[in-house]
Every structure is written in structure tokens, then in C-alpha cells.
Design brief:
The protein is α/β, with parallel strands linked by helices. Helix content is 26%, strand content 21%. The protein is globular, with a radius of gyration of 21 Å.
Amino acid sequence: MAVTIDRTTSSWRAPPQPARLSLTPAPGGLDGTWWPRSRALTRELPPLTAALGDLWGRITGIAVNPAHWPVIPCRVSVAGRTVHVGWSTEEQDPHRLTFFSADGRRDVLVIPPETGADAAAQLMAGGGIDAPAREEAADRIDARIREEAWETDGGAGRPSSLPRPIGSTGPSPGGRRR
């Protein structure tokens, strides 16, 4: 039986690190670019939301696509108040976060946390890259990371739980002849 330990209830917490954020508007409706340190939204969203709230006004909600986030909290605490976090696989781009405030909505491109510092700095600066090209670069980075994880986890071979193709006379994936 697997056990998960939640250390968030500890009385000691490391202070949150400032959000790595660039608010350079870009074509395609992007209002900025964010480079999180991890895929833990419960840890990453509060400092980001606080920073954006200082600039854009009180953030009332956040929309996320769950494709790249293992856990999505229902809400996060920011400056003593609660901000609702929602998700959608159909309406929300997997490489964007949408922030809602009294002034409307704003979209931020998410650079995968595993991205190297040089590539992230280039994406955050814009470097003459338009929004679709930045999203495509983020998508390529995510695909490369998934492929590397697949290969290092031994994913190149066929899973042994799959049955042999019909009519096959060779050994089954478990090594036994049928």
C-alpha cells in the first residue's frame, strides 16, 4: 500500500520564492510568460497570483488545463483570501493559465519547469517569437521530456501485460510459449 505524506501542515515552511514572470504582451492574446519551478500548483500559484494581483488587480479565479499538472487544487490562499482554481480540457490551452479579475481575463504562457535556463530566458524575453511559436516551443519541450521519461523508465519495449497478436506463434511477452 502506497502512503503519501502531506508536509503542508507543518508549522515550519520555507518562504515562497518569487514568481519567475515576464509581462511582455505578445500576439495571440498572451499577457505574459511564467516559468514555474515545479508542477506543484499548490506551491506555485500563490506567489504567482500575488504578483499578478499587485499588477492587474485582485485575482478572483484561475483556469488551468490539467494536461501538464498532476494535481490541481480547487482553491489557493493568496494574501489571506481564497482564489478559486478551475480546469477545462476543451476550453483551456494546455500551455496557458487564464487569470480572472474585475478588469477581465488575462492569459499567461507557461514554460515547462524542466526547461533549461537559457531557453526559458529566451522564451520569457519574447526574442521576436510570436505567441504561437512560443506555445509550439513549450509543446516541443514537454514532448521531449515525456519521451525522455518513457525511455529512462524502460518504455521502449512492449508492456508484458499485453496479449500476443492473434495468430502469433512466438513467445508471449512474458517469455512463455503459448
